[in-house]
Amino acid sequence: MDGDTAVVGAIGDEDPNGPGGGSAYVFTRDGDRWIQQAKLVPDDGGKTDYFGFSIAIDGDTVVLGAFADNDPNGSRAGSAYVFTRDGGKWAQQAKLVANDGDSGDGFGWSVAVDGDTIVVGGNQIQISPEPGANSAYVFARDGDTWTQRAKLTADDSDDGDRFGESVAVDGDLAIVGESQTNRANEPGSGSAYVFARDGSRWTQQAKLTADDGASGDGFGWSVAMDAGTAVIGAIRDDLKMKRDVSGSAYVFARDGGKWTQQAKLTADDGDTGKGFGWSVAIDDNMAVVGTNQVLSEGLDWHVSAYIFDL
Q1: 87-91: long-range contacts at Cβ-Cβ below 8 A with a sequence spacing of 24 or more?
Q2: Model pLDDT for residues 182-235, shown as the tens digit of each residue
Q3: For residue 222, which of 274, 168, 152, 267 has the smallest C-alpha distance?
Q4: Domain boundaries, the chain
Q5: Is residue 68 over pLDDT 60?
Q6: Could you list the residue ranges forming a coiled coil in this record (predicted)?
Q7: Which residues pair with 88 in a beta bridge?
């Protein structure tokens, strides 16, 4: 969502590209009503591409990931599509693929956009029997043309760490999560990496980990960034402690080129469930943290979102 525009993915939509082809719907707000403005589908979509699995929007530009797309880099190499709005009409502007893409990369698992910059991450371990050290890719727009400008990799990432599982971009900064980092003999504790752009060059600026990180926390599952502040979800934090509510999110702030942890966010309402930190968002001094499972008194599973003033 951005301003008065929201985009919703439907990865199981069969129309027009067959089962799992996917689509996305654009809604605009008019007063207190939301009205469908468009249905987005790729020009070359196919079944089980899972188009719309990941979504990012900034102004009149929308990016949609199709991590299981087979074209052109092989089976489930993945892709991402850029759509732009002119007036009330949406049209596909570009299809993005990695210059060095290969089968099973899962490119498009995560996407982010800010102005004329797009970051696309992969998640090879989710769809390939041969887990690899994943990457994230930066694309820049010149006019109507998008060109790959950089490939981001972590200095210390290993096979299976899931680098690229989540991405965010804000100005000259990008953050990439990997929820399966093995930190200090703590498998699956997770981490997130900050990259900074200087001219056309991107370099790793920092590696972020939770001060109290432990095995299996999944820190880095979700990431968000705005104005030098990052929010990072850890969806399995405290699950092993058998607490009623598992999961957390961490807030980091930048001072110059140094990042420090400022806060740890948790749910405080006593609902039983798990997955706090499944999704995160930040705008100025407000953060939103989503769950994927919360058990209500009626024993029905639902999802919730929590709003924090930072």
Answers
A1: 88/28, 88/37, 88/38, 89/38, 90/26, 90/37, 90/38, 90/40, 90/62
A2: 655 566 789 999 999 999 999 999 999 999 988 888 899 999 999 999 999 998
A3: 168
A4: 5-268+275-283
A5: yes
A6: none
A7: none
> Count of H helices and E strands in the chain?
1, 25
- Contact (Cβ atoms closer than 8 angstroms) between residue 11 and residue 67: no
Instruction: Identify residue 274 by its one-letter amino acid code.
Output: K
In angstroms, the CA 1 to CA 128 distance is 31
Report the distance separating Cα 141 and Cα 137, nearest Å.
Answer: 13
**Is pLDDT at 253 greater than 80 in this prediction?**
yes
Residue 244 corresponds to which amino acid?
Answer: D
3-state secondary structure 256-305: CCEEEEEEEECCCCCCEEEEECCEEEEECCEEEEECCEEECCCCCEECCE
Reply yes or no on whether the pLDDT at 81 is more than 60: yes
Nearest C-alpha neighbor of 48 from the set 73, 19, 80:
19
The order of strands in the sheet holding 286-290 is: 279-283, 286-290, 305-309
- How far apart are the C-alpha atoms of 281 and 225, rounded to whole Å? 8
Place of tokens 């929010």: 231
Residue 193 in contact with residue 214, Cβ under 8 Å? no
Element holding 113 (H helix, E strand) = strand 110-114
- Residues 30-39: contacts with CB within 8 Å, 24+ apart? 34/6, 37/5, 37/88, 37/90, 38/88, 38/89, 38/90
Domain 5-268+275-283 has CATH 2.130.10.130: yes
